[in-house]
Every structure is written in structure tokens, then in C-alpha cells.
Amino acid sequence: MSEVRRSRASGRPTLEQVAIEANVSRGTASRVVNGSLEVSPWALKAVQDAIRKLGYVPNQAARSLVTRRSDTVLLVVSESEDRVFGEPFFVNLVRGLSQELSSTPLQLNLMMANTARQHGKVEQQVRNGHVDGVILISLHGDDPLPTNIVAAGAPVALNGRPMSDIGAVPYVDADNESGARTAVEYLYRQGRRRIATITGPQDMAAGIDRLAGYRAALRGKRGVTRLVAAGDFGQASGEAATRELLAKDPELDAVFAASDLMAAGAMKALRAAGRRVPDDVAVIGFDDSDLARNTDPMLTSVSQPIQQMGRELAKLLITQLRDPEAKLSPVILPTELVCRESA
Amino acid sequence: MSEVRRSRASGRPTLEQVAIEANVSRGTASRVVNGSLEVSPWALKAVQDAIRKLGYVPNQAARSLVTRRSDTVLLVVSESEDRVFGEPFFVNLVRGLSQELSSTPLQLNLMMANTARQHGKVEQQVRNGHVDGVILISLHGDDPLPTNIVAAGAPVALNGRPMSDIGAVPYVDADNESGARTAVEYLYRQGRRRIATITGPQDMAAGIDRLAGYRAALRGKRGVTRLVAAGDFGQASGEAATRELLAKDPELDAVFAASDLMAAGAMKALRAAGRRVPDDVAVIGFDDSDLARNTDPMLTSVSQPIQQMGRELAKLLITQLRDPEAKLSPVILPTELVCRESA
DNA sequence: GATCAGGATGGGAGCGTTCCCAAATAAAAC
DNA sequence: GTTTTATTTGGGAACGCTCCCATCCTGATC
Known about the structure:
Number of helices of chain A: 12
CATH architecture of the largest domain in chain A: 3-Layer(aba) Sandwich
CATH topology of the largest domain in chain A: Rossmann fold
Oligomer: homodimer
Radius of gyration of chain A: 27 Å
Distance between the termini of chain A: 76 Å
């Protein structure tokens, strides 16, 4: 008696059963579930009660079969360069994404895709309607993936400015240039006059922009010695670049590294060369990663609002999902110089 | 002519269209798609050609509607304690998971769930058939979530030994005790005789087991001074604990910290107290995180095979998915002492 | 009192699969 | 030549939902 009839073995109640329990039609029950307004208050309550009583949960598969939406967003991590992002990066980004997505019915799907075969899988997921939109992080060079996904019919949001300007694909990025500029200006204001920089790879927007920031900061300043050495964001490259810089100018009194890892490498090389940080040479990094709080002296670094980047990424996608015609522009988020002991 | 008739606006071909193109029935086409053997070679080829020609991709929604499977695994990150895992942890674990999953039709769904409300959402996803299985990482205390999920009808795999032994839920963990034991034995063999440890939180299995390893290593050894101070895996707690230890025994010559972060804190405190590492005091950490390679001196640490843990986690779930009755036992993976400069 | 408008409702028609059973065919056994 | 058995095949019937159209009220308007 108290036991409600259920279809099949699966204990899950269907919309039909809810409708019966509430003494309305399937149609009306559906309207309630989907928040349609054209339902009498009386029916509304009856259905809501029935839903609660039976513990009804809509079947997503049946729903997407007819709506042709999946309510799923795919997060693709294209991480062939292992250490491109400083460490808390991934977790924080995902945290921001989740936050923003949690107020929507959207699910987050995760995929690591380095190989071309896996890239194909991404497109396939778009084509078979398994995902409604795609978020790409850590793309390198000018990957054709974003364009392909758009062609397959799903909106895309990118993390990090792509190298070649892909028309309609919006992205989120930190203001790398301004972050670097602020850091270098800070060094200048501290009275440093032989300011070197260790660059990131020059085939990545972040690498390019941070170098541009360094140049912009010193533009027009007289009496400043400029020194540039190439790095690849990795610690070893920072160490090597620093040795190179010291050879070129033993008197240098400041180093701005385009990543914390390289800054850590720089400090190690400086110490090996008998320089004290920050007394002889000031060092500033970029990323404000965990690492920055764990070097000795603690590293002054440029911080990016990673979690907020995640949120903006989600917003960008949601907007496109709501209005496929929406024209979106890139979102550039401000960076901040976090002063610690190294400069 | 060359243009195939398509249903509706959506350009996606259906199984029906494939069948027509191949001159077979829908049933036969389905059998081919699902790799059934009872298909004549002739029909097999015709269907395969048709699939290729039309670019057919199965509609996952329709499929799960009837099979009642979603081919989706949910990864729940229950991360209220922010820094429980050192950073490469998350990425590496996910990498291992993806590797293992990539040979199956399983998708990976990601969810951050700290609040009870979000935990409810996990259960809901299980109940509405949106996910077939759940992987939980970073659970604290004796969360009822795993049990609830099992009750909701989906298999679960846990990362890290749960505090209260939950009957049928298998887990993957590193051999924390043996890792700690190895580290402390190493210190002993180096001639250290006043060996301290900084513990992790004692309401987490990892914290308890690592302390047990410390104790086991020194059991029965005579002439060794034992010193225990409590920490919480965080850097600050390592620093504080070290000061405390130095006060208790200014002569201590070794510290085994249950996390790299605490080890880094310890080194800072030791340096502040005028001790040299490793000359005066040897330090060993646990996790072999990025940090370990970036301290000065570089930290000797116990490494866990995180990526493999991810793979085992996936295997555990896949096995249960294949055979719901399967009785699985925990998987304990070996740890390894990575010797660097600090000990 | 008849007509009309508009909101609320009921239920049929799919959505694209898989599952299953019956039918057809081919091969083997008697 | 006939019966039995194995192998392939075809297509109806769900799966649980949303969409849409026809119907039914209720009350206002002429």
C-alpha cells in the first residue's frame, strides 16, 4: 500500500510515476520539473510533494536524448609541457570553474589530451553531443584544436592568450605584461640599476608578454643596464641563465625571472656565485606559486588570480551556451606584486 | 545524390541511416557497433563502410537511456583541507587515472565537493544514473560519503586508507609506514642517534601510519633518543614543532617530518637556530614534492608513486564495474626514499 | 445566452539506442 | 529427402523524457 509501484527492477521513479502520484499528467509534471510558469499553484504543489515523496530525480540521459543538450562542459588539459603551470595552478583553476558552474546544471568533464589521437576524441565528444562546450587549458603554440572544436559545433573558452589570433574564440589571461612591468619598476624604485631578466619561451604568449613588460618598464629610463637571458620556465634554465648573466655583468644587482621556478634556479646560482639575496642582487619571480613561500629568502613574486581565471573561463563558456551568437572579448585579469624577502 | 538524407536539422547520422546505407537492419548495424560476433563478415564490412562514409558516432544519451549505464566515472575531490596534498599530486593522480581509463569507454567527470550539500549532489548523480562509479580523493576523518554512495548503488574506490574501516570499499594507498620506517632507518644508519619526528595530524591515516613507521624503525634500538612533536602537514606547523624540539633537546641530530612542507619549515627553523643541514641536523621529508627539489639544501624525501596510484584507483573501479560482486582488497603501493642533500 | 480569449491540462509522437524473440536461411545429421 | 541444429537477420518494444497540439475550463465580453 505504502509501497509505490515501480517500473522494472531499477528502483528509480520516473516522471510518469510522479504524475500518477500527484494526480496530474506527465506533461504537467514535466512543466513543474522544468519550472514552467503555466502551472496552477495547486498542481505545482501536488507535483512537488510527489517528487519529494518518491525521491524523484530526472533521468539525464532521457532528457538529453530529446533536448539534444548534454549539460556537460569538457575541460581539456593539453599538458605536453609538463611544468608549464606552476603548481597550485591546476587545482585552483578547477576550483574556480566548479564554483561558477555549481550554480548551473552543468557538469564538468575532464580529459587529458596530449596526443593527436586524444585531440580527435575531443572533437568526437563534441560531435556526438556528449559535451556542450569545451574549456582548453595549457595549449601550446598554435594548436588547431580550438578552431576544430568550433567547427564541430561547440563553443570554446581558452586559458591563456593563443599565439595565433583565432577569430571567434575568447580567452582568459592574466595581465602578464603589466605584472612584469610592475615587478621591474619596483626593482628600479628600490634603486637597482643593473636589472636582468630571464625570459620564458618565446613561442608562448606568457613568455613574450612578460618580456615585453620588462622592456616597457625600463623604456626611456636612463642609466639602467639591461640584460636578457633566455629560459624555458624551468628551474634548470633559470640557473643556467643566471650564470650566463653573471658572466656578462658581474655587477648586476637585480633579476626578474618570468617564473618562480626560474627565480629559484637563479637564487641557487647567485648563492653559488657568492652573491647575497637580496643584499647584492634582488630577485623577483612570477606565478606566486607555493614555491615562492618556501625559498630562503622567500621569493617576491607576481601573483595571478588563478581561481578567478577559472571563474571567468566558466562564465565565458556559459555566456556562449546561452547565446551562441554572443560576441565575446578576451578577459584580462590584473596581477599583483607580492613582496616578500628576495626583493 | 552524394548527399545523404539526414534526420532533422541536426547533421548527425543515426544508426538507422547507417543500416539503410549498408542495406542491413538496424539490429545488425547495432551488433556491428557493439562488436557482437554473430554478424556475417559480409554484413560487417558493409556496416563498417557505411559508418565511415557517414561519419557515424553513437548517441551516448540514447544508449545510456536503454542500457542504464552512463560509462562515466565521477572523481570527487573532497578538499576542505587545502594543502593536504602537495601539488603535483592532483595532476599526477589524474594523469594516472586518465591513462587507465583511456583504454575503456569510460569518461571522467570531475567534482569538487567540500560541503554536505555537494556531497548530496554526488549521491544524486549516482541515483539518477549519471555516473556508474565514483572515485574519492582526499577524504578526511570518517566521512559517510563512501558508504552512502555504495548504498545509492555505485561502486567506489578510495584514495588513502579511510579512518574507520568501511566494509566493502577498496582503497589505494602508499605504504606510509614502510616509507617512514625506511627514512628513519636511513637516518640511524648514518649514525644519527637523537632522531626526532614531526607528525602529521593524528586523525588521518597517513599521519598515523607515518608515525608508526618512525616508531617501528627505532623499536628495540638502544642508545637512540626519540622525540615526537605534532604537526598538521603544513609548513608553519613544521617550523613551530622544530623550535619545540630544539628546546626539548638542543642536541638533536635528525628530523623526520611527515611531509615536505613541514620539512621545509623545519629547515627554516633549524637555520634560524644556527644549525647546519645536514651537518648538524639531517632532515627527511615525505611526499617528494616539487618543493623537495627546490629547497637549499635539496630535501631528501620519501616518494609515493602517485601516478600509479591513479592507475590502480581506476583499475579498482573498473573491476567492480565489470563484476559487481568482486571482492577487492586494498592496494598498497611501495614508497621509495629519494636521497638528496638534506640527509 | 452565446461567443471568445487565454490559461491550464492531457497525452501522442518522437528522440536514437539496445534487447529480444521470431523468422529465415544455411548446414549438418538421419 | 526430411528433420534437426546452428547461424544470421529483421524489426517491434521499450528506455524516460520534452515538445507540441488539441482539448477543456473559467470568466470576461458582446
